[in-house]
Model the fold of this input.
Amino acid sequence: MWPLKWKKREQEYRRERADFFQAVGRLDRRSFMKIAGTAGALAAAQSILPPHSFQLVDVVEAQTAEKPLFRFAYISDTHLYERTLNERFVKATLRAVQDINALDPQPDFVLFGGDLAQLGQPAELELGKEILREVKAPIKMMVGEHDWFLDMGERWREHFGQPQYSFDHKGIHFITLMSVNEKDFWTERKMTPMERMLTVAGLDNSLQSRFEVGDEGRAWLRRDLAKVPRTTPVVIFSHSPLYKYYEPWNFWTADADQVQAMLFPFRSVTVIHGHTHQMLTHRIRNIHFHGMLSTAWPWPYAPEGLPKLTVQMDRADPFDEADGTGDGTIDVYRGGYVDKNHNLWSRNPLTVSRAYLESWGRTNVPPAPEFKSY
Amino acid sequence: MINKSYKLVTLAAFALAAFMFSFSDRTGQAISPGAVSAVAQQNQPRHPEAKSDSGNLVVQLCDGKTSMEIDGVREGEVLTPEKAREVAAKMMAAVAAEQSRQTSKWTERDRLTWEREQKRVIEEGDKLFHDWKALGGTIGISCDMCHPNASNTHAETYPKFQTQIKKVVSIREMINWCIENPMEGKPLPLDDPRLIAVEAYMAAQRKGVPLDPGKH
Done:
């Protein structure tokens, strides 16, 4: 009796497995739930239960029938010191460049998200430029406060041009904003340029002013947007989050409300920002916000103000220097909204989809972390 | 106005105790009360007379420390019975309040010293936390870069098991680990004042968070 019964079980298992892989390609939400259950059972049968099942991630993506219009990639917050002082951040930057160059097909372009240098020093900026030269796809540069406050952007502009510009790509209007201006806090305190730089570089000091696009920047933005039809999707790059997250650490843009008000009339707006070194997701009305990972180090979530739609990334393992860091890609769809793919170096890759944001977090919820910041 | 002169009381109590001790029952025989009171009267420290600069009457209790200046009654005048009752009630209430607490050996000066020293060490720790050179780092990164306001350092969860150190450790050992690893410096002796200062700073940032040793 026993061998027969065993045979039957084996056949059953093989059939289930075949069904599962066949079904992966053509799924609606309801059958996804069913298949997800089966996948779990299969994994259990083989006693290989990965922490987040790879199959399930694939299934979520397979669900999206619409193909993206195009893909771009990002590298952000590399915080380079001179190579002689710190190899660690150099290696991480090179790793990101390798990742991006290995993408097949290649992304349409690569956004550099700001904070190329740690202290705005000429040698740091040059090192960064040299490394980024290896990127095969065209690069769009954004400035960060670490690049700026030693010489107020002089060197950076020499290397990379104006920090604020716009361009059109495949029917989408892109704007790179200079969002890390600060009101003068240094003259009165008689700070040297390096003291000013070090003050801005620190998160938990109350000396510096808060980031802002500023009057001039907003006037420029108004002029730029005036040429854009309201139905054209807009994607904005800003180094600081274009909303108010946590003021004490300058996870903050002081005039964010005014900038958002200029963006509300458009049908679809996406903001991709750096600075916060963590997975960060937010939506205000028609504006979707996505944070980028840093290659250098992850930041803990702020003690308050975290946007509700943010699914945190798992707390980093201090014993693994690559954990919590990474790079990523962004799939842009015809309507303008994007899927944000976080390529966390020591974890499974993770997508925050436009469907998640469009449904205000009701569907396509990214997997929750094991450990939350506290 | 009710004054209390603690020093005097303490002195008086001390003198009395010393005095009683000299009469203690070394022979195992009862001491005649009469004999005690005769000597006691001689040695009894006298309360200094309570006076007011304003020339108002000052009433003093027999504890020698509680006194009260009576507004509107000059020294040498006699209180009316109602006024006397009111004054007595106030003074007895003050004594009752005083007796509801134990006397403390610690003065305001002690308290100020505790506070000042704690603050000094926390500030020192704050500086070290933001200064990679001072902690012996070698690659330009300091604690605050990854832990603004000491976030995610969780002082309240120590001692606890740390996977890579493979045992339950104090937070100082974990600070040392971070000095060695991300910062590529050398670990400090566990009683190094710099470690204590960094620990004090991190703990201060978590003031009020319930102790939860072992939480990860």
